[in-house]
Specification:
Chain lengths: 662, 328
């Protein structure tokens, strides 16, 4: 009985399998013919249309869901010189992010496409969205030429009207932008943007502006090219009567908040809405927050750049960013060869040896970069301290010079910086056009006698029983230096610096704190000194961000109240700066209005000379060359890429021509 | 009994209200708010934030109001609309962010509890019935090691060795290629091959404790007269042990469900960060560090709800399991 049943069941299976196989064979036959037909179509299309596009786009063109390449590219696509080799289509670039607010890395890798772009070596600007521009002799009027036929990622034309729309309806809308950003105005007057025709944009300032091309290539630049009028106007009350109601439906109080939620703006606020048409090589397909484990960007079918053989870029299919709340997880992924290029969050000097050892096993390689900083650690004394005694101490130049002589920089380099770097004040690097030998090397010698000489010159020569000098109020001179938790090297160096300074009778205690708290203390001037890695060492970074030499930046920690005065003299914590500072700020304003690069350099040198005279902030050593971790098969990564925020690494090195050699 | 349950449920309301108020207050305690974090981060990149932009951001995030007003609005929206507010860092409604993560967290937690119980039950029973045998000593030794080694250290070691010997990082719950793929057989296999790691790591400490409890309780029971009676009546040894003393020794397992749940959820934060699991832990930690208060507050509220419910369930289960404990 049992046996029969078993038999019958297996017979049934046999029969079923046979039927299934027959059915499959039957289906298979027509499928094959269809394939053949497709292949023939392919061959025909290859003759008729350009084959120079990704296979998936070729297929979409064949079945009619995408216009042919010639209709998608502008009439004068940007031809990109590849770094080494013409690439193959395919491959996904795996990278990592820390969390939802970490979108600067998306900007730098995927979304660096602005009106103008930095040269790869950061020696100047080159055409990008604009194929060229003219500037009037008085440097007030710029005329940008756009690319006829260029398209947004949804296929809509990209025109000068989009840029003018952004300026008139976002920047000049007082509800959306209460205060026009500094680079978009001269004096108090905003610029005026006019679309002369579809492909010509006139950009006019009331007064001369010499640095617009630089700003357009730097991180303020994305806003000008990221507002597709045809899409964005649905969120704008001037264009959509229901914008307010839509905002309420989505839980926002008014249309401006809903608008800013969709497109937060700035450098990196364009990745929140996966439907937003863009002009970058890869378009966001999964936005952060739709998913809390990854962000994905896929190849843009309307990308407007080709390589020298006419192949549409980018070569890579997609970029995927996985979220890891702990940077060590990213390090581990890179060590396991699960990341194709990354430097942000993982390229600490202390990780380099581990990456080096894993090169073979993980199939990775280390890329070398050019440090853009002006120092590995800058120490800024609060020279606008609310406490009059500390203010007097920190404002005393001899005091700061004495402390600088007391630091054994070579020992710090050997012990903490694994031998990398030379003793240096906060100053541009020798390769920079702004290099200033006096600013860079003065007081860097380790000399306790000279240190005591300068400290004695302050008049604070009496000491207490512990050998600590007594300050102007008769109390021992003792202060703290704020150092943030994410800078472990700074913490190690300060521990040694405290010993050096104790030798010359000054008591300093490092105060390790969270970055947010450091910021908080800076803003209310409640700190004695803070450390930071000084920017501004190479290329245009000195001109664009001279925070350590002129009090023009919110992180000019050494003169924060003076910076507040520069922004707004009526500010309640603003302090009127001394003559020399005011003179520097006036020169800095002049630079903004100067179009001639040589004159810009000359004026910048004046600022740096005044800074050298006054010795505002103190440095330790030149920064070590940075590095990135790349898949060993990732091609066309440029050697010696500058690593800087103003040069949003690796964006200007043209990530769209990177490719994976499988 | 029904009245007792009702009483307990009603008592949950003021408890949860108190917890939410307290957690919201604590999140606000550190100086500054999300904007401070945001500005510090922008400045770290070299971006400048003007006063005007700050004022605009403050309005955008609704941070200008006093914290109790923010709290009131938040709670009102939860009750009336089920809206937990917006996360600042992710720029998305909290509702969109947490439920996936709560799901994975619940799953890992429940599976870990089951893992702990099964292992503890088997080893504890063996150790008790073979008291002072080599097997007992080995079980005890391994158990104590598991109890003494912090979970996150175990996670780190595991990651290190799997990288060293297999050249892969087993972090996360999915391999990169399945990360955004729809569910399929391949994805399930990949998922299961990742899942055992957090379960074993999270389970070790709990297992060690439970083995000791099981062993001690069972030893107490084994020499009681009812066991001897049963044995005298000729009940086979195996049936006897499982049917009588083991059931009595199970009591503490049930009564601790209440605090096992929240302990696994909160105790797994560091392990989840190390292993990069898509659970609530890493998101909660990030939210707290960045003062993303609605996201953090919502998580804490949810964990509190879990705790309170878990305690209630364990009380009810215990009463059901052991008539001696029932309310008179």
């Amino acid at each position: 009985m049992t046996v029969t049943r078993r038999l019958s069941r297996s017979t049934l299976w046999l029969a079923l399998t046979a039927i299934l196989m027959l059915a499959l064979a039957a289906c298979g036959a027509p499928a094959e013919t269809a394939d053949d037909a497709m292949a023939a179509d392919d061959a025909m299309d290859a003759d008729m249309a350009s084959p120079n596009q990704a296979p998936e786009f070729q297929e979409m063109v064949n079945n009619g869901s995408l216009p042919p390449l010639s209709e998608r590219l502008p009439s004068d696509p940007l031809v990109v010189e590849v770094v080494d080799s013409i690439g193959q289509y395919g491959g996904v670039w795996r990278a990592g992010l820390r969390g939802g607010s970490d979108n600067a890395w998306i900007y730098r890798t995927v979304a660096y496409d602005q009106m103008l772009s930095w040269n790869r070596d950061w020696s100047g600007v080159r055409p990008n969205v604009a194929s060229g521009f003219d500037v009037s002799d008085d440097a007030t009027t710029y005329t940008f030429h756009l690319r006829p036929g260029m398209k947004w990622s949804d296929g809509e034309p990209y025109t000068a009207h989009d840029i003018a729309w952004w300026f008139d309806n976002v920047i000049l809308n007082e509800e959306l932008t209460p205060v026009v950003p500094g680079w978009l105005k001269s004096g108090d007057e905003p610029a005026a943007l006019t679309a002369v025709d579809d492909y010509t944009l006139e950009w006019k300032y009331p007064e001369p502006n010499g640095v617009l091309p630089l700003r357009l290539a730097a991180p303020p630049g994305p806003s000008a090219v990221s507002y597709p009028a045809h899409y964005v106007q649905q969120f704008h009350a001037d264009f959509n009567e229901d914008a307010g109601a839509d905002a309420t439906d989505n839980g926002f109080e008014d249309w401006t908040l809903w608008f800013q939620n969709r497109i937060p703006g700035g450098c990196c606020g364009y990745y929140n809405d996966a439907d937003l048409p863009v002009i970058w090589a890869w378009d966001i397909s999964t936005a952060a927050g739709e998913n809390t484990t990854f962000v994905r960007a896929d190849r843009n079918p309307y990308y407007w750049k080709v390589d020298t053989e006419g192949n549409q870029l980018p070569y890579l299919d997609a970029v995927v960013f996985n979220f890891s709340s702990d940077p060590e997880t990213l390090v581990l992924q890179a060590l396991a060869g699960e990341i194709d290029y990354q430097e942000r969050h993982i390229n600490a000097l202390s990780n380099k040896a581990a990456f080096f050892d894993a090169q073979e096993s993980a199939g990775i390689t280390l890329t070398n970069g050019l440090a853009s900083g002006s120092n590995v650690m800058e120490i800024s004394f609060n020279q606008t301290h609310p406490d009059p005694v500390k203010d007097e101490i920190f404002a005393n130049r001899d005091f700061r010079i004495g402390l600088s002589y007391a630091i054994d920089r070579q020992e710090l380099i050997d012990l903490v910086l694994v031998g990398q770097g030379t003793p240096w004040q906060t100053a541009p690097m020798p390769s920079s056009p702004y290099y200033n030998e006096r600013l860079a090397t003065q007081y860097t010698e380790y000399n306790v006698d000279k240190a005591n000489e300068h400290l004695d010159a302050t008049g604070w020569t009496d000491r207490d029983s512990d050998g600590i000098r007594l300050g102007p109020d008769g109390n021992p001179i003792s202060f703290t230096i704020d150092v943030i938790t994410v800078a472990p090297q700074h913490i190690d160096m300060l521990a040694l610096v405290a010993n050096y300074w104790a030798e010359v009778g000054i008591k300093m205690t490092p105060n390790v704190l969270d970055r947010s708290l450091g910021q908080q203390r800076l803003e209310v001037l409640d700190f004695d000194a803070q450390t930071w890695g000084g920017p501004g060492g190479i290329g245009y970074s000195t001109l664009l961000d001279p925070r350590n030499w002129a009090a023009m930046h919110g992180h000019s920690r050494w003169g924060y109240a003076w910076y507040r005065w520069y922004v707004n003299p009526d500010d309640e914590i603003a302090e009127v700066p001394p003559e020399s500072i005011q003179q520097q700020l006036a020169i800095y304003d002049t630079i903004q209005a100067t179009p001639d690069p040589d004159e810009q350099i000359r004026l910048m040198e004046e600022i740096l000379n005044i800074a050298a005279d006054n010795f505002y902030s103190m440095g330790i050593a030149t920064p070590a060359p940075p590095y990135g971790v790349a898949n060993k098969n990732m091609r066309n990564i440029m050697d010696n890429m500058p690593f800087a925020w103003q040069y949003p690494t690796p964006g200007p090195a043209d990530t769209h021509q990177w490719w994976l050699d499988e | 009994m029904l009245q007792y349950i009702l009483q307990r449920v009603l008592l949950m309301i003021p408890t949860l209200f108190g917890i939410s108020l307290l957690s919201f207050g604590i999140i606000q305690l550190p100086p500054g708010d999300y904007l401070t974090f945001y500005v510090a981060e922008l400045s770290a990149q070299g971006e400048e934030v003007s006063e005007a932009m700050l004022a605009q951001l403050e309005r955008q995030y609704g941070l200008g109001r006093p914290w109790y007003v923010q709290y009131f609005l938040w709670v009102r929206n939860i009750i009336t609309k089920g809206d937990f507010g917006r996360s600042f860092t992710w720029n998305k409604p909290v509702n969109d962010l947490i439920w996936d993560r709560v799901g994975y967290t619940m799953m890992i937690t429940l599976l870990t509890v089951v893992f702990v119980w099964i292992v503890a039950l088997l080893i504890g029973k063996y150790a008790a019935t073979h008291q002072y045998s080599p097997g007992d000593y080995i079980a005890t030794f391994v158990g104590f090691i598991g109890l003494a080694v912090p979970n996150f250290l175990l996670a780190l070691l595991l990651l290190y060795y799997s990288l060293k010997f297999f050249g892969l990082s087993p972090a996360g719950l999915f391999s990169p290629e399945y990360q955004d793929a729809p569910w399929s057989v391949g994805k399930w296999i990949d998922f299961l091959s990742h899942l055992w790691i957090p379960i074993v790591i999270l389970g070790t400490a709990g297992t060690a404790g439970s083995i000791r409890i099981m062993r001690a309780n069972l030893l107490d029971e084994l020499h009681k007269p009812y066991v001897i009676t049963a044995r005298a009546k000729g009940v086979p040894e195996r049936t006897l042990i499982w049917r009588y003393p083991v059931r009595v020794a199970l009591n503490p397992f049930i009564s601790t469900v209440g605090w096992t749940l929240p302990e696994l959820v909160s105790g797994s934060v560091i392990v989840s960060v190390v292993l990069n699991l898509p659970t609530t832990g890493p998101l909660l930690l990030g939210a707290l560090l960045q003062q993303d208060m609605f996201l953090a507050g919502s998580f804490i509220l949810l964990v509190s709800v879990l705790t309170v419910i878990g305690t209630l369930i364990s009380d009810i289960l215990l009463a059901w399991l052991d008539p001696r404990i029932r309310l008179s």
